[in-house]
Amino acid sequence: MAFTHLRELVELAESRGVKISRVMLDVEIEQSGVPEAEIVDKMSQQFDVMEAAVRKGTEEPVQARSGITGGDGHRMYNYVNAGRSFIHPTSLRAMAYALSVSEVNSAMGRIVATPTAGSAGILPGVLVSVLDSKQYAREDIIMSLMTAAAIGLVIANSASISGAAGGCQAEIGSATAMAAGALVELGGGTPEQVTHAVGLALKNSLGLVCDPVAGLVEIPCIVRNGLHSITALAAADMALAGVRSIIPPDEVVAAMYRIGNELPLSLRETGIGGLAGTPTGKAIRERVFGRAEKEGQKTL
Question: Which pLDDT does position 291 carry in this prediction?
Answer without folding.
Answer: 55
